[in-house]
Amino acid sequence: MPLVPAIGLGAAALGTLACGAWGVYEPNAPLFGPVIGAGPPDGGAVYLTFDDGPNPGVTDRILETLARHGVPAAFFMVGRYAERHAALVRAVSGAGHVVGNHTWAHVKLHRRGPARIRCELERTHRALADLTGAAPRAFRAPHGYRNPFVARTARRLGYATFGWSYGVWDTARPGAEVIRARMRRKLRPGAILLLHDGDGYDPAGDRTQTADALPGIIADVRAAGLEFRPLTDLLPA
């Protein structure tokens, strides 16, 4: 085979691999089904979300702050933590916040086959529905990592899949003021904001810095002329 066509085939293969990798690791990539990664850029709204809880001592503090300031949020919950901390799940739901599915054990779904993916989503779906009295409608994959089997199961369960516009690495615990400053620098209309009220791999994970940063983040969003809107505004009709 001539050298040039061989090089061309190699480039095409590399391009396909690159596209596939982007679809796996990019939380808003549509390669494996539709994903909601932001709201309308002209509406003046932002959408606050928390992953990896519920987490006693943090989720409840966050709920108190949200109630004090009249802010809606969405909590994408790890099923095994939700089952362990049922009262917190009910408190989140009872306060009117969105309760979303974040898998049972916070596994990286792109490495899993269809049976494990079904188990992760379905088990959490049942637990959250039992605890809140309503079937969850929102799903977010841990780290945003997905493969074709994820979209199939999410669609069958009636989920809208959510990504996010940006996170601020609050999981690294850089300090509450750093978390706040990172969020302030990135604020823009329509953004889905990613924070964490738990640790998907450690049930005792420390997320107090996120709770400490939240009042300042709320103040900064409002000072920027933006308003918090519920994630339900972005759910398909």
Offer a concise description of the structure.
With 237 residues, the protein is of the alpha/beta class.
Overall number of strands: 8
Shape summary: globular
Distance between the termini: 54 Å
Low-confidence stretches: 1-19
Q: Describe the main β-sheet briefly.
A: 6 strands, parallel
Share of helical residues: 40-55%
* Helical run tally: 8
Query: Can you give the mean pLDDT?
Result: 92
Element-level helix/strand string = HEHEHHEHEHEEHEHE
Q: Strand pairing plus helix content: what structural class?
A: alpha/beta
Question: Helices and strands in order, then pairings?
Answer:
Layout: H1 3-25, E1 45-53, H2 59-69, E2 74-77, H3 79-84, H4 86-94, E3 98-101, H5 114-132, E4 138-139, H6 148-156, E5 160-161, E6 166-167, H7 176-186, E7 192-196, H8 208-223, E8 227-228
Parallel strand pairs: 1-2, 1-7, 1-8, 2-3, 4-5, 6-7
Helix pairs in contact: 2-8, 5-6, 7-8
Name the features.
8 strands, 13% strand, disordered N terminus, 237 residues
Structure report:
The chain has 8 helices and 8 strands; from the N terminus they run H-E-H-E-H-H-E-H-E-H-E-E-H-E-H-E. It is of the alpha/beta class and 237 residues long. Strand 6, helix 7 and strand 7 form a beta-alpha-beta unit. Helix 7 packs parallel to helix 8.
